[in-house]
Amino acid sequence: MSDTPQTRQASEVDEPAETAPTTTTTTRTTTTGESDERVREEWRDHEFAGPAKLSVEDLNVHYGDDHALKDVSIDIPERSVTALIGPSGCGKSTFLRCLNRMNDRVSSARIEGSVTLDDEEIYQEGVNLVELRKRVGMVFQSPNPFPKSIRDNISYGPRKHGDLETGLLARLLGRADEDEREELVERCLRDAALWDEVNDRLDDNALGLSGGQQQRLCIARCLSVDPEVILMDEPASALDPIATAKIEDLIDELSEEYTVVIVTHNMQQAARISDQTAVFLTGGELVEYDATGKIFENPESQRVEEYISGKFG
Ligand SMILES: Nc1ncnc2c1ncn2[C@@H]1O[C@H](COP(=O)(O)OP(=O)(O)OP(=O)(O)O)[C@@H](O)[C@H]1O
Ligand SMILES: [Mg+2]
């Protein structure tokens, strides 16, 4: 009686994932063709050298009744590239937007859990959201420059935040606003690998640039307020291969100084540019997080392996 298939199945379901024995995980196939396996804690527990820039603990996001992110815990190391991959609708953008509280703008969103930036809770009361979004900047899928000159696109952010008048740079240099502005514009455009292409037309409208140039301008604009973390949501998905290669080279360079978190649908891109990769799967679960080489060559989860090899998603 105690050995009927029915009771065996019930005891398997009751067993907590973290105490599961090290036997092979039993999987079935769901109607969408995915394997039905339980996420194991150790698949998501990526160790890296050095302190975490961002630390996410038990993050849950609901949009009304829709549970978009489930119990996500992950540490993101500084000065590196972390890729977020997974099928459409699995919560990648939602997760990214939680890292600088952009989801606060979505009235139906309910966010629970903890996100720390340099060990400080960003979801505590009294956090200055303008300051937070300066430290954790964002670049979107479609380039969205302001309909202003190339120069103004860069100097607008610092001027809005008052940095050109009162910022450290201004105080140290003690120079006229104009000089500081020109210096900042050049530095940001150089850092975004765009200077050589636009330095003779800084007064032209930014909307006259190509898509790839506009996206680099948006990255330059993001750099102009001196961020520490740069969040990118599919920044190259609308670009041709040459523009994409430029963005990828740029991300590689930026990661020497900044912490970059990037959502991409392009597996080769994730494999090429990231140091570690987090895989989200349907239902808003973070299934596996590890060094990028490990995720792409030898993932622990069968579902991750199936996703990466293109069996679903
Ligand atoms: N503003 C919103 N209001 C209501 N539901 C939302 C909102 N944004 C996202 N969702 C829902 O949350 C879930 C996750 O969406 P999200 O945009 O984070 O997925 P994604 O992984 O970025 O997908 P894609 O790869 O298509 O961009 C989806 O079910 C989506 O419908
Ligand atoms: Mg998205």
From TrEMBL:
Signal peptide: none annotated. InterPro entries: AAA+_ATPase, ABC_transporter-like_ATP-bd, ABC_transporter-like_CS, P-loop_NTPase, PstB-like. The keyword Zinc does not apply. SMART domains: AAA. It comes from the Archaea. The keyword Translocase does not apply. One of its GO terms (biological process) is phosphate ion transmembrane transport. Keywords: ATP-binding, Cell membrane, Membrane, Nucleotide-binding, Transport. GO terms for molecular function: ATP binding; ATP hydrolysis activity; phosphate transmembrane transporter activity. SUPFAM superfamilies: P-loop containing nucleoside triphosphate hydrolases. GO terms for cellular component: membrane. Residues 54-308 form the ABC transporter domain. Residues 1-10 have a biased composition (Polar residues). Residues 1-41 are annotated as: Disordered. Residues 22-32 have a biased composition (Low complexity). NCBIfam families: 3a0107s01c2. This is Phosphate ABC transporter ATP-binding protein. The lineage of its organism: Archaea, Methanobacteriati, Methanobacteriota, Stenosarchaea group, Halobacteria. The gene is pstB.
